[in-house]
TrEMBL record:
It comes from Alkalilimnicola ehrlichii. This is DNA polymerase IV. Poorly processive, error-prone DNA polymerase involved in untargeted mutagenesis. Copies undamaged DNA at stalled replication forks, which arise in vivo from mismatched or misaligned primer ends. These misaligned primers can be extended by PolIV. Exhibits no 3'-5' exonuclease (proofreading) activity. May be involved in translesional synthesis, in conjunction with the beta clamp from PolIII. CDD domains: PolY_Pol_IV_kappa. It is an enzyme of class 2 (transferase). Its EC number is 2.7.7.7. One of its GO terms (biological process) is DNA repair. Residues 5-186 form the UmuC domain. The active site is at E105.
Length: 354
């Protein structure tokens, strides 16, 4: 049986909640995340702010330069969690197979749902309507026969979008897609694929399973099948994240420590922004370094208190970098990974034990 998967993604969720709750913010560029002194990173920007080039994971100082008149707000996570619970309740009226990815997005498997004559597109439209009726917030929905395509579809008509990729259109859709837009292909992998002449799904499809496994290891089969519009991953109602990271490979090896630190800053900012968006705190950070000779090493630090500030994380990464041979060996790749993840409530419970 062909599965019916919906991916729901709330539009500029944190910023939209703030604009809903304070009418004075409506129509204005709103940035959630970052402190009044411009430290920290952007968690979410309203669509008015995005017109200035402000994006999630961007340092708040950069966002201020792009749009000095933007309103910067500290996140109100308890409010966002409350709204998220309302939305999750709506999802579960249609299916028990709900896989939350964060407070503002989730996969739903509605293959067995008989509402709306079993039409996943009509179910997605009704869910969007119910979300707005209950929260005054807009959501975008992607509908397809697997998770990979449903998530891609939800990005197409944002904001307030609804897009269907039908089973007979999946392979063609993927073939025409730029490789950088593939979920599961990060910046480093995109650069590597470009170096191999892979720019679109059609290019990726020219590679055999064996060739992709040789080039990309255990990720090879995933790339092979998504190039053909195939993704058999089920919607999992319980999902535990163990780590979260970002990395990049350089077109030219870096030999200067200051250049390495400059390259690490956007990676660190991206990791912190994703932690903030997913309402997680990290107690361990790992620095990944690959040298010009392809030697790969990692250096990690664990603490009793979570690291949430970009400057504190950069100081930690600088100390970890000093524990490597980067001062004497050119570097081709740097990465930052957060692990030892806990929710804020788990942290509060842990602190209560001391």
């Amino acid at each position: 049986m062909t599965r019916k998967i919906i991916h729901i993604d709330m539009d500029a969720f944190y910023a939209a909640v703030e604009q809903r709750d304070d009418p004075r913010l409506r129509g204005r560029p709103v940035v959630v995340g970052g402190s009044p002194d411009s430290r920290g990173v952007v968690a979410t920007a309203s669509y008015e702010a995005r017109r200035y080039g402000i994006r999630s994971a961007m340092p708040a100082a950069r966002a201020r330069l792009l749009c000095p008149e933007a309103v910067f707000l500290r996140p109100r996570f308890e409010t966002y969690r409350k709204v998220s619970r309302q939305i999750q309740t709506i999802f579960r009226r249609y299916t028990a197979l709900v896989e939350p990815l964060s407070l503002d997005e989730a996969y739903l498997d509605v293959s067995e749902c008989r509402t709306c004559r079993g039409s996943a597109t009509l179910i997605a439209r009704r869910i969007k309507e119910e979300i707005y009726a209950n929260t005054e917030l807009r959501a975008s929905a992607g509908v397809s026969y697997n998770k990979f395509l449903a998530k891609l579809a939800s990005d197409i008509d944002k904001p307030d979008g609804l897009y269907l990729i039908a089973p007979d259109a999946g392979a063609k859709f993927v073939a025409e897609l730029e490789i950088g837009r593939f979920h599961g292909v990060g910046r480093a992998t995109e650069a590597r694929m470009h170096a191999l002449g892979i720019y679109t799904g059609a290019d990726l499809r020219q590679w055999s399973l064996e060739e992709l496994e040789a080039a990309f290891g255990k990720r090879g089969p995933f790339y092979y099948y998504i190039a053909r519009g195939i993704d058999e991953r089920p919607v999992r109602p319980v999902r535990e994240r163990k780590s979260l990271g970002s990395e990049t490979t350089f077109s030219r090896d870096l030999s200067d420590i200051s250049a390495m630190l400059a390259a690490l800053r956007p990676l660190a900012a991206e990791v912190l922004a994703n932690l903030q968006k997913k309402q997680l705190l990290a107690y361990t950070f790992t620095l990944k370094v690959k040298f010009h000779d392809f030697q790969l090493i990692t250096r990690a630090h664990s603490a009793r208190a979570p690291v949430t500030d970009i400057e504190a994380l950069m100081a930690l990464l600088g100390a970890l970098l000093e524990r490597t041979e980067a001062v004497s060996k050119p570097v081709r790749l740097l990465g930052v990974t957060a692990s030892g993840l806990r929710t804020a409530s788990e942290t509060e419970q842990q602190l209560g034990l001391f």
